[in-house]
Amino acid sequence: MENIGIIESFAEFKDEKNIDRATLMAIIEEAFRAQLKKKFGTDENFQIIVNPDKGDLEIWKTRTIVADDDVEDPNLQVGLSEALKVEPDFEIGEELTEEVKLQDLGRRFVLAFKQTLASKIMEHDSGQLYKKYKDLEGEIVTGEVHHVRPKAIIVLDDDGNELILPKDQQIPSDYFRKGDTVRAVVKQVEIRGNKPQVIISRTDPRFLEKLFEQEIPEVFDGLILIKKVVRIPGEKAKVAVESLDDRIDPVGACVGMKGSRIHSIVKELGNENIDVINYTQNLQLLISRALAPAKISYMNIDEENRRVDVYLKPDQVSLAIGKNGQNIKLASQLVGMEIDVYREATEEDEDVELDEFADEIEPWIIEEFKKIGCDTAKSVLALSVEELVNRTDLEEETIQEVRKILSAEFE
């Protein structure tokens, strides 16, 4: 039949989009049958032969031969006199099969067919894209920055598909320009309208987990398991790891000599500080490791309410909390419990307000000490008698008596 240029463009599409021949034939036939149903009410009496490689589309129509006066549906029936023009031996009840020229179906039919075919191709393309990236959720993909927008970056993969890296999925220190290469993890695939939208992320904990798999052979081989990853993107992260081989130190294997193995991961994440922790099912030990470098004195664990009270020496409290509370926040997320940090009471920490001695020391004497900034027992005892005499209006005898009362409290 005459080639009217409908099929060739989609044969090219087959090569560009890597659609196999059988699939393209099925799409073309499906689009054509959809239009036949609209025009004739049925497509059951049509046979469609598609050859997308050559750009050929053949349409064959079969009708039952009836008496000329009995033709009720010209699409399904043909009068005997008309059939005899094709073949003089035809009889009533037999079937007549004829080739239908595409242009004979009308210009409107052809235009509608083109639109339906384009729509079916797009649906197929979208379906393939959705399936491809749905299977890749949680995996790292690489693409090139195509466009930088205020709220997102548009990245193209090797096949020219659009991937979206939203602003809130970028590490704060990230800065990309058109043409830059981006590595990120596929966070989710959504259907917006009829088109799939692939959201990628560099802040998702799975991104760090997959970077460990790529950069550390033991993790890739399954000898070291990553039990949990928690992050404050671009700032700090904690990764709990476990070795399935007693001969392998999981923390040492992940960090490497002088941090050589983890360096590339830290660099990829904008110098994010990564703590690698040896996982254990011993909750108390895991909490201690999670709060490192702080050294815990003791703790009270309430597993029912998922809370733990941790007590530390005064000089360890700031280490446990970390910069802007990052260390304790990540430790809580890692162990799955709310951690409260308390300063451990020591003898040096114990002190008593001077007002507590009002029944033994005259109020006006207490006020004299307060005037020089001494409002607790230890603040008074920290100064010598001579210095107190010089700085207050009190007699030496009075001061000696007060010191005696205060000292007795601690004895």
Automatic annotation (TrEMBL):
GO cellular component terms, semicolon-separated: cytosol
PROSITE patterns, sorted: KH_TYPE_1, S1
Name recorded for this polypeptide: Transcription termination/antitermination protein NusA
Classification via SMART domains: KH, S1
Described function: Participates in both transcription termination and antitermination.
InterPro entries: KH_dom, KH_dom-like_a/b, KH_NusA_2nd, KH_sf_prok-type, NA-bd_OB-fold, NusA_N_sf, S1_domain, TF_NusA
GO biological process, one term: transcription antitermination
A molecular function GO annotation: RNA binding
Compartment(s): Cytoplasm
Keyword Nucleotide-binding: no
Keyword list, A-Z: Cytoplasm, RNA-binding, Transcription, Transcription antitermination, Transcription regulation, Transcription termination
HAMAP family: NusA_B (MF_00945_B)
Source taxon at top rank: Bacteria
One Pfam assignment: KH_NusA_1st
SUPFAM superfamilies from the UniProt entry: Nucleic acid-binding proteins (SSF50249), Prokaryotic type KH domain (KH-domain type II) (SSF54814), Transcription factor NusA, N-terminal domain (SSF69705)
Annotated transmembrane regions: none
Family: Belongs to the NusA family.
Occurrences of domain S1 motif (ranges): 138-203
Originating species: Schleiferia thermophila
Subunit structure: Monomer. Binds directly to the core enzyme of the DNA-dependent RNA polymerase and to nascent RNA.
